[in-house]
Hints:
By secondary structure, the protein is of the alpha/beta class. It folds into three domains: 9-129, Rossmann fold; 148-312, Rossmann fold; 318-448, Helicase, Ruva Protein, domain 3 (Orthogonal Bundle).
Amino acid sequence: MPNEKNFRGTVLVVDDEASIRESLRMVLEYEGYRVEEATSGEQALDRVRASAPEAILLDIKMPGMDGLEVMTSLHERGYDVPILIITGHGDVATAVEATRNGAYDFFEKPLERERVLVSLRNAIENYRLHREPGVARLSADELVGSSTVMKRLRETITKAAPTAATVLITGESGTGKELVARAIHRQSQRSDRALVQVNCAAIPEELIESELFGHEKGSFTGASRRQTGKFVAADGGTIFLDEIGDMSARTQAKVLRVLQDGDVEPVGAQKTVKVDVRVVAATNRDLEDEIKEGRFREDLFYRLNVIPVRTAPLREHLEDLEELVDYFIRRFSQADNYPPKELSAEALELLQGLSWKGNVRELKNVVERILILSASDPISRPEVVELLGGGSAELSAPLAGAKTLRQFREAAERLFLVQKLDENDWNVTRTAEVIETPRSNLYKKMEQYSIHRETRGRED
Ligand SMILES: Nc1ncnc2c1ncn2[C@@H]1O[C@H](COP(=O)(O)OP(=O)(O)OP(=O)(O)O)[C@@H](O)[C@H]1O
Ligand SMILES: [Mg+2]
């Protein structure tokens, strides 16, 4: 592992030959790169997502998916990470084809150390220069997770995307609805046209119609100029109507009209405009409930709900938590350019035990906080407890649930003891010393509050 001082970035080495991977790893790690490996094209695609490299050294000739195919498929997925091609001796033709298809550079085997290093350094510098500051553009839009739930979601997206059908995405807050909408657009035939996003909840009621449909000059007080609506701006592309459950009845009627016959009527205009727009809508409300309450039009619901897509709450696919944590750690460390830290098995277990009402968004924020504030590496469970403790409603929930003073005192005492035991690796003698109570008393309390060490022994 490179140390923090001379850390130069993460590189993914893709080659089926172990000896090449091995020698590249040695050279690159010595220079301060973190090296990730893949032994096949298929594995490379997985590793790119998981490790978020800033450059890829890619062998052309591999059994199964070859280097050119890997490149194409990375570009299709929206990755713009520089790819440096490795070819066999004398296979310059393929290498030239690869550079024509967007490879950054190519090297013939046997590899020349200096040439690889210089090119790699330039590739990464260049990549960082063109990346939004502070944001790891790479894979920022990926839907991460290998659970059945996530696989199904990706399958649905892949099936729905190429069609013109309207999609209605429903799911709790923070479950990735916006990511799904973007993925649908990206994988559609309209991907080279605009994706126009409208947050229906954020726009004041009196402005939403002119936002969506545009208005003529002077059509209302304050309308000093003609404005093009979002539907017209999205012509040929996709409009993403986010938080559609928050739309007024009046606007719903107008949206219905666009869906029915593609007619957009700007506010104050005499004529309607025809548009070709694919509609993707999302909401975290239960629209069927909203219909029952008379707040959402049933006919609009059916128009929108041609392809229903549900994003599952995180508690329904906790098996993805580790992969997500890993992914966020890498993304944040890449953005701020330091080597990724690791989370201890116990800390991970702690996270897996929480209920994640804020779903993946909450997890992402927690990972960021832990990364910034933690001192240990691998990050220990006690440290995570401490870092979450203050802000986490969940960890302090027992306190909030107490009704009497006595219940509160007991809940607080229990919380305190668990935390201190955790900090001292569940060594009862040491914990008792630290909190200045007889060991027998600590045992008694542990018994009284049924405190057990539920976690496995430390391996690190
Ligand atoms: N499966 C996932 N893989 C990677 N990142 C994810 C995943 N799901 C959600 N995220 C991330 O979590 C955050 C919240 O996702 P998103 O904004 O898509 O949620 P949402 O369902 O639209 O929430 P809301 O209803 O509050 O608008 C984003 O930063 C997103 O990148
Ligand atoms: Mg959203």
